[in-house]
Known about the structure:
heterodimer, A: mainly beta, 7-stranded mixed beta sheet, 4-stranded antiparallel beta sheet, 49% strand, B: mainly beta, 6-stranded mixed beta sheet
Amino acid sequence: xxxxxxxxxxxxxxxxxxxxxxxxxxxxxEYMYWYRQDPGMGLRLIHYSVGEGTTAKGEVPDGYNxxxxxxxxxxxxxxxxxxxxTSVYFCASSFRDVGYEQYFGPGTRLTVx
Amino acid sequence: AQTVTQSQPEMSVQEAETVTLSCTYxxxxxxxxxxxxKQPPSRQMILVIRQEAYKQQNATENRFSVNFQKxxxxxxxxxxxxxxxxxxxxxxxxxxxDMRFGAGTRLTVxP
Lengths: 113, 111
């Protein structure tokens, strides 16, 4: 049981490049989340999904897109990376009901130059 | 919008002593959940304790307990018998439809 995994662990992009971050969970969780963590600001929710085929915007969605084609995977895309998107990105998942514990992945450190 | 404020950027405690981390929040909802997460240098987010807003009884998990004051919108974390392994960033969070985190408190444990 791997829990929540994220690919890749590190990435460096040039401004304007695109990339996709992959989150996978093997706990059969319905809910999945993408956060970014910047120094001194805690975690901020980018997008989330309450089930396969559904997505919703969080607190800071601009510049990102997501897809949830399979229940176990949640993809975060950056179409045209900007230096302001330099951050550590965390994926999390939880069971369906609001209030259940979110299980976090190990994070992806992204640097945009 | 929901907000979470952690007014102590850094705290330190002597090993075996007790420390309290502060958290206040703002929400217009009556039904919500509150969490404390720990983030050690490994960067992994670890759930410390969880509180349902509709429960008046304060949650406890071994050496960790909370003081939940719903009217005051306060949710502090008390760590008893502090251990070196407790050193980490601690984040307070509120969950209703989405999750909002505070900026964190860095806890140092002195041997």
